[in-house]
Amino acid sequence: MRNENKNFIHTFGQTLGLTRREIDILTRLNTPEKIQDYVSKIKNNQEPEGDTCLSVREVLRQKRAHCIEGAFVAAAALWLQGCHPC
After folding, report:
1. CA geometry: angle 51, 70, 20, nearest 5 deg
2. Taking the model in full, what pTM does it have?
3. Model confidence pLDDT, tens digit, residues 8-43
4. Are 77 and 26 in contact (CB under 8 A)?
5. Residues 52/72, Cβ–Cβ less than 8 Å
6. Torsions phi, psi for 64 (to 5 deg)
7. Which is the most buried residue in 3, 14, 31, 57, by most CB within 10 A?
8. How many separate domains does the chain show?
């Protein structure tokens, strides 16, 4: 990845409220297959303390997600790759 592109991605990720570490995790998911593999390996969120809607940051921290939470992670990874949400 070119340095100016990497700087843009980090700046953009920070505007989304992500840390450098979180941005690095998400930018490594640079193909649909890598995104799916990552999301599939996350532990299923059984919501032990009640209903949740974890943010991307919390999913990355807790390493658990249910369907929509995993979709948020996938969407964030795609957005950082330049695929704008509709």
Report:
1. 110
2. 0.85
3. 788 888 888 899 999 999 999 999 999 999 999 999
4. yes
5. no
6. -150, 150
7. 57
8. 1
Q: Which residue has the tokens 């390996």?
A: 41
Identify the domain containing residue 73 by its residue range.
Answer: 3-80
- Counting other chains too, the contacts that 42-45 makes at CB distance below 8 Å and 24 or more residues apart are 42/70, 42/73, 45/69
Q: Whole-angstrom Cα distance, residue 14 to residue 42?
A: 23
The alpha carbon of residue 65 and the mean position of all alpha carbons in its chain are separated, in whole angstroms, by 11
Residue 75 lies in a domain: yes
pLDDT in tens, 62-73: 999 999 999 999
User: Does residue 53 sit within a domain?
Assistant: yes
Q: Is 86 contained in some domain?
A: no
